[in-house]
Amino acid sequence: MRHHDRSRFAFRWLAAAGLLCASLLSGQVHALPTTDSFTLSGIVNTPGVHNLASLQAFTPVTQTVTYQAGSTTVNQSFTGVPLYTFLTNPPGGGGIITTPGVGNDVLRDYVVVTGSDGYRTVTSVGEIHPNFGQTQSLIAYRQANPPGSTPTDLGNDGFARTTAPADSRGGRYVSNIASIEVHNATSASQIQGTGGGLSESFSLAGQVVNPSIFDLADLQALPAVTKTVSVLSGSNPTPQVREFTGVPLFDLLTLAAAGGGILTDPNIKNDILGKYIVATGSDGYKATFALGELHPNFGGDQILVAYDETGGDPGVGTAGFARLVVPGDVRAGRFVSNLVGIEVLSAPPTAVPIPAAAVLFATGLGGLGLMRFRSRIGR
Known about the structure:
The protein is of the alpha+beta class. The protein contains 8 helices and 18 strands. Strand 14 (275-281) and strand 15 form a beta hairpin.
């Protein structure tokens, strides 16, 4: 073989190794090895790396779930630790860090779970908080398929995966967990309070096709539903039963006559599940919701932008011209009143940890290419 042919051949080896290394570092390779640990980071008291032993240190919880995966109905049991329990207790996150003086600051928080292939989803803390949404999403490490059969590990799904027991489809069941991050939405939100008082309009902003301003007449022009909710308020141990009329929040975001749809990246699988909503009141109070929480293909919680309460003061009374109503919550912390803003935002990019085996493979390939290059040059 002539010298320039040898050089071209060796260069191709080095180029292939370089491309693989770049793909690994960019998180674009989708056939990475199964995980045996994940990183916990963000606004928790004890960030760190967690493995199977970390999860098994908690009292196990078993749940049976049914959801759609493509055209298949999945019915199986999972055993693991509730995500909220893991975040708020040692040896997990040891608690979520909050800002003193900010009312219900934890309701501004959300969790991003990312798999080793870069797939990620958002869960709001309010969704899983025992005082609010109460959804018992698990970090699961055992499964029984079908329910009642002998439990096994998760196989190709890694040492741990999440569950989303309230969801009708499996998009938020993240396998091969590589990282869990807890974020606060305050800094990303661009809409601020107006100093308090009764609101007369709100801005719909962020990643929607038609950002716009809505007042009472605009809401009344959209299809409405009426929902009855049972919710605790203050120290009263007896739930209040109340009836509200308004526009489903998901419809407000997606109807052609309203938000017109949510902007997503077609190159990212289920990109909509990596987004969240921030609602802001005139006094600056904020609450966060995962898009998956209210999307009809997933959580399907019919959160309302309500403009009337049956049997109450005209409209929604001192709650302004519109407020949020969250039928699935047991307390009213996310019933944001005097709405001045609703924003659709994306969670920040997640760096996927590179498994050691993949790095060794890539560097080994590069080394092999270099050896072949030297060998051929030396002939």
